[in-house]
Structure formats: structure tokens, C-alpha cells
Amino acid sequence: MARWSIERIDGVAVVTMTSNKVNALDAGFFTDLQAAIADLQSAPPSPVVLTGTGSCFSAGLNLLELYEFDRTTLRAFVDRLGETLLAWFSLPRPTIAAMNGHAIAGGCVIALACDLRIAVDNDDAQIGLNEVQVGIPFPGVPFEITRHALAPERAREVMLTGALYTPEEAHARGLVDEVVDADTLLSRAVAVARAIAQDSLGAYATIKSHLLSPALARIADSRARIDRDFLDAWFSDAARRQMNEVRQRLLARH
């Protein structure tokens, strides 16, 4: 049974991620996301809001777990990551990310896979794609989701610098569409989701599929090659040193 809750608020499915304390992307997270997608697909069509709890939307890949994987295990994980993200990215519903806090690396990609993103107004929250600072590139599906969501000049800046931004800085770069106070985050996200009338959901799904078709075609064409490049980089000596430094800092906090 999925650990995530799905609450219906004013005709909107509000999905709250609770896989672990920081919603780190690991096997359990993707089991929960797949269960949520199945639940949404089996229910009558409705707009969707995706959010987290506390100060973190999602902190990205669980390096403490993934660092120990061999190439075969990591390849299988990357395949599952890609398939699950694709299912969410192409979900034929309006999807709104209510970013309640940190959205880092893969956690930011989860938000970018939504149609619109609303972030909490909190300068302590960090948002961005810091993969390069950890010494690794992007797998194929996250790469193309990011390229779809951001203007080309912003994608270059965000992906190549690996900077982490405040919500307002992230807004200026297109990582989020709106920044609101914490006490209005969920209600605002629900209001934005409800702006699509029930009778318009079919048209919305058609328009969305057409908008996504270039990105989905690029994924089909280049995913295998980009995934191989990711795996090669992950197991390079330089990346292992970088990741181990991050891993040691994480271990020190536990």
C-alpha cells in the first residue's frame, strides 16, 4: 500500500509525498509514485496537486543508498526512474507542484515534470539542479524533462552552473511559475488546478500531449545513449570522489 496520501479538495486530487523524511528518490519513493499514478489513472479525471510535508518537497537522489549500487543495479534503478517520471510527466491531467520547501536535483525534476510550479516564499528553501556540483550528469528522461520545462538560455545556466536558488531566484529563471506565502501555498495550488473546468479536461489532455510530443520524441531517440553516459560518469573516479564527499556530509548529519 502506498504511503502517500491522496485527498480530494474541491474536485482536485492533492497528492502528498511522504516516502521518507526528505522524499529522497529511492526504490520506495518510486513505488509510492507508481501507486499514486495508478490511483489517479483509475479515478475519474481531475486536476492534481503534488506537494510534500515540512521544509522539503524532495531532496533528490538518495546518495546514501545509490552510492553502494553496482552498475547493473544502478542501470535498473535508472530505467525505473525514467519510466516512472515519464508516466508522471505525461499524465493526462493538469498537474501543479506545490513546492513546500527544498526541491533539489531529482526533486526539482519532479517539480519540472508538473505542468506548473508554485513555490513557498521562504528564502531558506533551496531550488535547483546541482548535479554538476556532485560530479554527475543527468539521465535521459530527467535531462529532456528539464529541457522541455525551461527556456534554452535558462536551461544552460541552471544545468551547467548547478546553482541552488531561493524561490524568488528560481522564479526569475523559470524553475517556478509563482511564489506565495506558506499559509496560502496549498489553497493557491488548488485554485490554479481548479481553473480548468471538468468539461475542459479532455481538451487539456490533448493539448498537453501535443506540447509534450517533441520532448517525448527526443526521449525515445536519445534516452539509451544519455543513460549510458550517465552511468559511465557515475562510476568514474572523479564522480566517486565527489559523491563520497557529499555522502560523508550526509552521514555526519545522521
Overall description:
With 254 residues, the protein is α/β, with parallel strands linked by helices. Helix content is 54%, strand content 16%. The chain is built from eleven helices and twelve strands. It has helices spanning 27-42, 63-66, 71-89, 106-112, 131-134, 140-149, 152-161, 167-172, 185-194, 201-234, 237-253; strands spanning 5-9, 12-16, 24-25, 48-51, 56-58, 60-61, 95-99, 102-104, 116-120, 127-128, 164-165, 178-180. The strands form three sheets. It has a six-stranded mixed beta sheet with strand order 1-2-4-7-9-12, with helices on both faces. Helix 1 (27-42) packs parallel to helix 3 (71-89) and helix 3 (71-89) runs parallel beside helix 6 (140-149). The chain is globular, with a radius of gyration of 17 Å. The chain starts with a strand and ends with a helix. 40% of the residues are buried. The model has no long low-confidence stretch (mean pLDDT 96).
Defining key terms:
alpha/beta, single chain, 11 helices, globular, six-stranded mixed beta sheet, 12 strands, 254 residues, 54% helix
